[in-house]
Write a structure and sequence with these properties.
Elements (H helix, E strand, L loop, with lengths): L3 H16 L23 E6 L2 E2 L3 E2 L6 H10 L4 E5 L9 H10 L4 E5 L6 H8 L4 E5 L5 H13 L3 E6 L2 H13 L3 E5 L11 H6 L6 E5 L5 H9 L4 E4 L1 H5 L4 H9 L5 H19 L3 E4 L5 H10 L3 E6 L8 H15 L3 H4 L18 E6 L5 H11 L5 E4 L4 H12 L6 E7 L3 H11 L6 E4 L14 H10 L3 E3 L7 H8 L3 E4 L4 E3 L2 E2 L1 H12 L1
Helix pairs in contact: 5-6, 8-10, 8-11, 12-13, 12-20
EC number: 5.3.1.24
Keywords: Amino-acid biosynthesis, Aromatic amino acid biosynthesis, Decarboxylase, Isomerase, Lyase, Multifunctional enzyme, Tryptophan biosynthesis
GO molecular function: indole-3-glycerol-phosphate synthase activity; phosphoribosylanthranilate isomerase activity
């Protein structure tokens, strides 16, 4: 796929060479209003946006001043103004107009700035903050542009997304105040992944903004739960200004909690797996310490324990014991805590990392469901996998159980037809960064050994990042990885000698296929 960001930058250089830093706009020689501090408090940044390369026209006939005032009525105190002309149909005229008309709002100039004199133009046009995209600016230029922003009293808003961006951000933050934004949208492909901001959140040295992709109040809530200080909402606000207030409230009424903590941890591990060019690995249906410790030693990232009627049902006391053993081992040097150490399959980590422990629940009102929730509230389980018939309702019930602190959780969708794909998309729109897909077998919740039809897996993979369960075993896991590039694979019955007992030879073969 063509790199859209490279094309935007190339065309912008052409326009700058032809039109200069004002891009043909009659920019005032002097700034007309004082600086209004940008994102002084936790809140939403709503965007004046006419179009985008991915969506085409969004609100081509918008009136920028009217929209900015509507945003202010919705509770926003910060507004982003897209000024890029070719691909987003913006203009510096929009920024000049809104900054002149709305004295109490703070404005971000959002564009693909490449030259230091564009900072001066942003200041004269009324900007209070300026977007600087780390990926398209080398470190010396980024530092110069950030310093130029601060010299005018404007805030440098530095956007990062890749590991290489973080060193630039760190250097800029040491030189002075900056605001960091993490874009869930890859500007090269325009693919959205909210787990990218989750993965980077703990690595950012300053106040932070979650950018792009949030179109519902629940998605905005998720961003705040991750610990972000602000959220930038573009298309959803510009296209439907009447919904802006609910989006703002979705963010500001939330708080950082254990749901956010869980997804930050999943994101961190997922990013590490990406560097190893492998998926996250979950081994499910564990019932005993020997199998659980071997799975951890072989490289499992998540361990699943079933709290439902099944030959794989977990004993809560054993789960507590397994958690204690794994936690104790994670405090030892790596050389002392890898157990399958002589196995060529093992990949000892640079630092011992305890797998995340997941409780698999089908009925939250059952005794087993309540056991799982209690273990999660006690910190024994890191998260709950809801494997019931109504994923949204199940997640809501887990929310109730978690109270104001939250419980890490995600849903399973049993995929049996194309109709189920819409449910997956609905969950994603509501801010669920990942949904685990399993095969639909009537009357059975999971652990069936049945694979999802490949056609449906392909459709799901094309629609978003894939977490995949259902019929995985040593004989097919490599072909699954090669064909569908799942971000997580989940195996249970395909690794057993009998239901509830893992076959250690099969487990080693399985991991050998994953790591080769």
């Amino acid at each position: 796929m063509a790199d859209i960001l490279d094309e935007i930058v190339e065309r912008r250089r052409e326009d700058y060479a032809r039109l200069g830093p004002c891009f043909g706009v009659d920019v005032p020689l002097q700034r007309a209003r004082p600086i209004v501090p940008f994102l002084k408090e936790t809140g939403a940044i709503l965007e004046i946006k006419r179009a985008s390369p991915s969506k085409g026209d969004i609100a081509p006939d918008l009136d920028p001043v009217s929209l900015a005032r509507s945003y202010e009525s919705s509770g926003a105190r910060c507004v982003s103004v897209l000024t890029e002309q070719r691909f987003f149909k913006g203009s510096l005229n929009d920024l000049i107009a809104v900054s002149s008309a709305c004295s109490s709002l703070s404005f971000l100039r959002k564009d693909f700035l490449l030259y230091e004199d564009e900072i001066d133009v942003a200041y004269r046009s009324g900007a209070d903050a300026v977007l600087l995209i780390a990926r398209i600016l080398d470190a010396p230029l980024l530092l110069k542009m950030a310093a130029r922003c601060r010299s005018f009293g404007m805030l440098p808003f530095i956007e990062v997304r890749e590991a290489g961006d973080l060193a630039k951000l760190e250097a800029a933050s040491k030189a002075g105040t900056v605001l960091a934004g993490v874009n869930s949208r890859d500007l090269a492909t325009f693919h959205i992944d909210p787990l990218i901001p989750a993965a980077l959140r703990n690595r950012l040295p300053c106040r932070t903004v979650f950018e792009s992709g949030a179109s519902t109040p629940l998605a905005c809530r998720f961003a705040r739960r991750l610990g972000f200080d602000g959220i930038l909402i573009g298309e959803a606000a510009a296209k439907n200004p009447e919904k802006a207030a609910s989006l703002v409230r979705g963010f500001v009424d939330a708080r950082p909690d254990w749901v956010g903590h869980f997804w930050r941890e999943v994101g961190r591990r997922s990013a590490a797996c990406g560097e190893e060019k492998r998926p996250l690995v979950k081994i499910c249906g564990l019932t005993n310490e020997e199998d659980a410790l071997l799975a951890a030693d072989l490289g499992a990232d998540l361990l699943g324990f079933v709290f439902a009627p099944s030959p794989r049902s977990a004993d809560p006391r054993k789960v507590r014991d397994i958690a204690a053993r794994l936690t104790a081992r994670s405090r030892l040097p790596a050389s002392e805590c890898v157990g399958a150490l002589s196995s060529p399959v093992s990949r000892p980590r640079k630092t011992p990392l305890r797998p995340l422990l997941i409780g698999v629940v089908t009925d939250l009102d059952s005794d087993q469901g309540r056991d799982a929730l209690a273990l999660a509230l006690d910190g024994v389980l890191d998260g709950i996998q809801f494997h019931g018939d109504d994923p949204r309702a199940g997640l809501d019930r887990i929310e109730e159980a978690g109270g104001s602190y939250g419980i890490g959780r995600y849903a399973v969708v049993r995929l049996g037809s194309e109709d189920d794909l819409e449910l997956i998309q609905d969950l994603r729109r509501d801010g669920e960064p990942r949904v685990l897909l399993d095969a639909r077998v009537e009357g059975l919740a999971g652990g069936t050994g049945t694979s999802i039809p490949r056609r449906l897996v392909r459709l799901a993979a094309d629609a978003g990042t894939l977490w995949l369960a259902g019929g995985l075993h040593p004989g097919n896991v490599r072909s699954c990885i090669d064909e569908f590039s799942p971000a997580l694979i989940d195996a249970s019955s395909g690794l057993e000698s009998v239901p509830g007992k893992k076959d250690h030879a099969l487990m080693k073969s399985y991991f050998r296929e994953i790591f080769r």
